[in-house]
Amino acid sequence: MVMAYKAKRLIFEEKDRTVRVTDDDERSICQYGDTLPIGGIEESCQQDFKCLQGEVSRNIEALAQLSRDVQGVVFSSILAMLRDRQNLQDLMYMLELDSSGHLHGPGGAILKILQQDSNHALSKSKEPILNLLEAIMVLSDIQHDLLAYSMKKRILLQQQEMVRSILEPNFRYSGSNPFTLKPELLAPLQREDLAITYGLLEGCGLRMELDSPKSTWVGAVKIPLSALYETLSLLQQLAEA
């Protein structure tokens, strides 16, 4: 997929990992990853947004039951791992095994604090975290980079609301359906923040232009966009802790 805009474009530089907006013809090429099942979301929910929202809400509630310290460590550790897909996979593997394991780095920090949390056994507290990781893994590497910027800039809530505004009315459509983003969803985002957000949407298969709130829904974006929605929703809960 070419992450490009007709007027202004989001350019992601792999070399120095910067995001900028440009008028020229430069383009950044990103490869959209294979579509995978969404963690924690039942297959039947892929046809019903209310069902999807219910599953996401249950994961949010489960995260909220963890202590503030645990949520803080999970948030910062995921941020540190976003640019290393192998570390994310290793953590998922250890959580699936219910193992405190010999995992170093940020993933090991998550396992350690889950074990130390006296209120929850690892087997109980791991589920929402595992579901979050599975949703993150649906996203492409460039989306992971853009997500890291979003976490640092604390724009997850605005992005979550924008993604929901696209998903909810279009979820039932398997074909194409034009839509227009509401001005109140765009207004809180600065120029670079909007470029990052549009980059996340483009990574799901939507064609976005920085100078236009209009785009077209296509059925193929539902699964990756649902994964993005779950990711933003659960990370926002962790950020609020």
TrEMBL record:
<dbReference type="GO" id="GO:0001786">
    <property type="term" value="F:phosphatidylserine binding"/>
</dbReference>
<feature type="domain" description="Gasdermin PUB">
    <location>
        <begin position="48"/>
        <end position="215"/>
    </location>
</feature>
<dbReference type="InterPro" id="IPR041263">
    <property type="entry name" value="Gasdermin_PUB"/>
</dbReference>
<dbReference type="GO" id="GO:0042742">
    <property type="term" value="P:defense response to bacterium"/>
</dbReference>
<dbReference type="Pfam" id="PF17708">
    <property type="entry name" value="Gasdermin_C"/>
</dbReference>
<dbReference type="GO" id="GO:0005829">
    <property type="term" value="C:cytosol"/>
</dbReference>
<dbReference type="GO" id="GO:0070269">
    <property type="term" value="P:pyroptotic inflammatory response"/>
</dbReference>
<protein>
    <recommendedName>
        <fullName>Gasdermin PUB domain-containing protein</fullName>
    </recommendedName>
</protein>
<dbReference type="GO" id="GO:0070273">
    <property type="term" value="F:phosphatidylinositol-4-phosphate binding"/>
</dbReference>
<dbReference type="GO" id="GO:0005546">
    <property type="term" value="F:phosphatidylinositol-4,5-bisphosphate binding"/>
</dbReference>
<dbReference type="InterPro" id="IPR007677">
    <property type="entry name" value="Gasdermin"/>
</dbReference>
